[in-house]
Amino acid sequence: MQAGAFSVYDNALNLRNRLYDMAPSKIEPVDVKGTTFYRVRLGPLNTVPEADILLERVIATGQNGAKVVVECADGALQSSVSGC
């Protein structure tokens, strides 16, 4: 799950720290058109219902842009399980 993405590392760190108790979390840097963004990711999660519950909890903290992201076996990212 991606809880948020920030161009400032400290903002990503603050969010990760706020959500730390909900699930394993990490910050992943990614380059988008020459700008580094820091994605706050939670998981891995084992089931769709588990992901749905966590998504609701994260949104309840005010992270309205949070979304479930599925990482396929080949490393590709999808927005749904059926995309793998």
Summary, kept brief:
The chain is an alpha+beta fold and 84 residues long. It is built from two helices and five strands.
Report the helical percentage: 25-40%
By DSSP, the count of extended strands is 5
Tell me about the largest β-sheet. Answer: 3 strands, antiparallel
What is the CA–CA distance across the termini? 16 Å
| Poorly predicted regions | none
Radius of gyration (Å): 13 Å
Given helix and strand content, the structural type is alpha+beta
At the fold tier of CATH, the topology name is Alpha-Beta Plaits
Q: Categorize the overall geometry.
A: globular
Q: Class, according to the CATH hierarchy? A: Alpha Beta
- The CATH architecture assignment turns out to be 2-Layer Sandwich
Please name the fourth-level CATH homologous superfamily.
Sporulation related repeat
What is the number of independent domains? 1
Strand content: 25-35%
Task: Give me the strand/helix succession.
Answer: EHEEHEE
Task: Give the spatial strand order of the biggest sheet.
Answer: 1-3-2
Average pLDDT works out at 90
Annotation field: number of helices: 2
Key features of this structure:
single chain, 84 residues, alpha+beta, Alpha-Beta Plaits, three-stranded antiparallel β-sheet, two-stranded antiparallel sheet, 2 helices, 30% strand, globular
